[in-house]
Protein 1
Amino acid sequence: MRLSPRAAGLLAAVVTVAVWTGFVISARASARYTLTPFDIAFLRFVGAGLVLLPWGFWLLRRHGLRGSLGVSPLPLGLTAGVGLTAGLLYSLGAYSAFFLAPAAHGAVLMPGSLPLWTTLLAAFFLGDRITPLRAAGLALIVAGDLMVGGPSLLQAFSGDGGRVWIGDLLFMGAAFSWGCYTMLVRRHRLDAVHATIAVVAFMAVTYVPAYALLALTGTVASGLAAAPWLEIVTQMVLQGLLSVVVSGISFTLMVQYWGPVRSTMVTASVPVLSALGAVALLGEPLYWNLLAGLALATTGIVLGVLSSRASPAPVAAAPQEALR
């Protein structure tokens, strides 16, 4: 049974919110175990590659597509673009941030600031208009981000800030990188599966072999040799199969059906669910400034959703169109 565009968009949103919430909680929990952030990024794309690289090879051979790297359905330039933004920069920034700052910070600063970056990038590169209601929502998002990350920055300036503020900045940088990816998806009308395979293909020929060599030679500190197999397999499933394969495709489907701004606005429940999940499952404290920032950012996202309802949803591109 084929779903209508609206039903497919709603289903993609539900799946994306669920996986993103689990990503925030599980990534923060990873800091308590053996693996480093770079190890987790390595396992993320090894796990995803086990599924997507054969899929990409099959697509190229079966449909006669002209791709790149032997498995990517996209041209080399686009493969590098989506690989750098949704692959290398996003994963390294996000995982490193979770080792420095609480999950509640990531819950607000990543999905919370994503609509801000996406709106600004869409206005600059795609000519999207920022309505007054959307501007008000963005102002609330900025206020919420400052409420969460501001105290860490102020403590850093006083010389007693630890490293939390670095994690906060990395969260913001990861969100910006993912916002750039949404622009590439929208501008080139990329097919969901093709774009996700391209991300993994790029990482499979760049980061994965390079990091494996550095870890084997002891050039970089790695916990891969010391980590139990259960931890390694768990990371490959959670961060690879679910966070890359499942949510990568579902998020790209959202962008196709709803557009980049509305897609990122739809994730309004992720900060709330992630912050509460970190309190319940990880025992992290939820201070007043985090609650206030969470409320401001979530309200801003909701306003952005309301401001986008009047905009027509873009039609998804056919797989062949994505390669032109």
Protein 2
Amino acid sequence: MSFKTDTQTINDLRIFGDNTGKDIFGIFNKTRTGGGAKLLKDMFSYPLATASEIEYRVNSIRFFMKKKITFPFSSVIFDTIEFYLSNTDERSRLTVQENNLKRKLDQMVGADVEYQQLQQGVSDTLHFLIGLDKFILNLGDEGMGSALKEVLKKVSTLLNKDPFVFIKNADGAGKLNFDKTVQYDELFRFRSRNDILKLLRYAYEIDVFTAVADVAGSENFTFGEVNQQAENSIDIEGMFHPLVPNAVSNDLKIDEDNNMIFLTGANMAGKSTFMKTFCIVMYLAHMGFPIPVSRMRFSIQHGMFTTINLADNLNMGFSHFYAEVKRLKKVAEAVNNNERLIVVFDELFRGTNVKDAYEATIAVVEAFATKRKCTFIISTHIIEAGEVLKERSNNIRYLYLPTIMNSDMPEYTYMIKEGITEDRHGMMIIQNEQILDILKA
């Protein structure tokens, strides 16, 4: 089973950005190898939806974190090994018969470039196999989860295959002579290439786990606990946005009796940031990664759909309102066909008039509220809709982000409170900015 999401959600949460590191992926992208970075991106692209997969990652990262284990290899060798193993052209196969006077002369004057590249690939692959074998032997299994033990057992099984037995006593120091290069090249590129590629994949996973463990420590992140009981519930303490400096933390508890959050608050009070924080926490938890919370226990969800920064689609002739409606239809179909989806809408129906927005908000929220196996957070400025919904649905929780007026200047706490906001400070902000005075002048 996969965790369903889409491009709109990925963009809303800034999972991936513009390579500046100011995105969620960038927080964790401290890998040492290109293969590790690619694997990390795959993990971010495909969150998990089973308890066993999530717990494997949690326990593995936690193990490397507690042991303070660093990546045991020089990162420069991996590109060489990948390039070397990609060359499976039979015409490049080395033979002992080639060890003739011409080859020796070519080598002396530096003309045998192809051989030098092969020799370097053989040497780096040998160093990798020796280093991986020693790393596994010295790792120790105290505090190691059973799933990680099984993975490392597979690594040991590959390294203990007959062709690789020699690495137990191999000396990686010094330059390989021609005969040894021929022998190892035949083994690495042609006889055991697939096994070495598997071992590289395990090494990249170690790269990811050690890098993410370092981030967990430096960022003061912790790990979520999977709740495997039948009832759907999410219990979070101290969640904060990992990209916001000095972010304010909040608690949130959701269950099937309160699976809908009706969120209100003035502009700039922090509604969008609060919703993004919750979604980022849930997304990372379903990757089995450390998360920006003090404590979390959650039921496995089957997907997430957010609508926070929805753009017009002028190329297709869509107004903002019609883009909202199309998005709402897609999400409604997903909710109808799946349980345990997280659905987030920021400022539902902002693209239409107040009367239509009021009526549509009540109708859609009331309909969503019947899907008690899913989790909803819907923010709105139409606070009057909340009063009607209180009479119609008993599983909606009303939260707001307050604004404190200091003289005529608004201050924001960014701390959620129970209830529906009564803040209406739009005209005061317009007056503070002297917009009307400017126009009169």
Protein 3
Amino acid sequence: MAYELGQLLEAMVAAGPPLAIETATAIARTTFGVAGRIDRLTGERDENFRISTAEGDSFVLKISHPAEDEATLSLMTAALLHMEATAPDIVCPRVHRALNGQTLVHFSDDNGQARTVRLLGWVPGRPLRDADRSSLQRRGCAQLAAAMATGLRGFRHPAAARPLIWDLANFDVVTTLLKDLPDLPARGFISDFASAYRAEVGYRLSDFRQQVVHNDLNANNVMVDEADNATVIGVIDFGDMVETALIADVAIAASAQVTDPSTALSDVTEFTLAYHRANPLLPDEAAALNWLIAARLVTDAVIPSWHRAHNPDEVHYARVDATYIERRVAIVEQLMHARIVIPF
């Protein structure tokens, strides 16, 4: 389904006025019966708080944005419950019910706005972005991504087919944001890439296998062992879940493996081969993968730049500077002229 830019940007609003720590503490105690030290975390739309109890347990209290759609919150919760039931070996946040037995609880915040609160389990470890990289780790990330896709294969939800700007099916719309970013480094290159991408992949994503996917297995959301960074523990943040092309999910996870232009192609190839062994790809999917990985790398520069330009006080997205974009451009150029070879 094609979406208008306005529909896709509805999910890109800035966070609302922050909830007081005292209010979050009271909600955790009275709604879920959980008490302990509470620390504010970052979040694109949700307000997130880590609660550390005296018993050594940790939880994440998630307070929805006032504009968040109830169906979307239901999607994320249902997906986590599905994973717990069908793929319990995959480490991801576990849903904790409120004292009244509900998974989603409504309340009015300090400003009288309707909000929804959830409590999830804490996933330990270090984010992939802060970890030393290795071949063993890449293969572990591939196995996790493949297991996630397999676990979600039978999952259905009415809100899964939703307008989401981070869905690679909407890449053509993402590049229209360039008109609002006249000073973005490599703006001309990105525009040219979008034209080449359109010719190579175009709107063919709808022809590939479709299912609900995590859609955000990036280096912030994959967790590795603190002591042994080669060991992949699990995954967090189901906020970008969507029903889309399976190969788009593979591309996003593969893009998280890219840290150096000189090894980009070999790293994504190693990841893809390991993924293919665990969850076989189809030839037409593999043929488009290099372009989809490149499109995600471009998206990672354009959307955060647009968001910070329109919400200058927000710090969830790191600032995108010329050096960051230059490295991305070097990798994208390499991927545009290479094919990830998979033996079928």
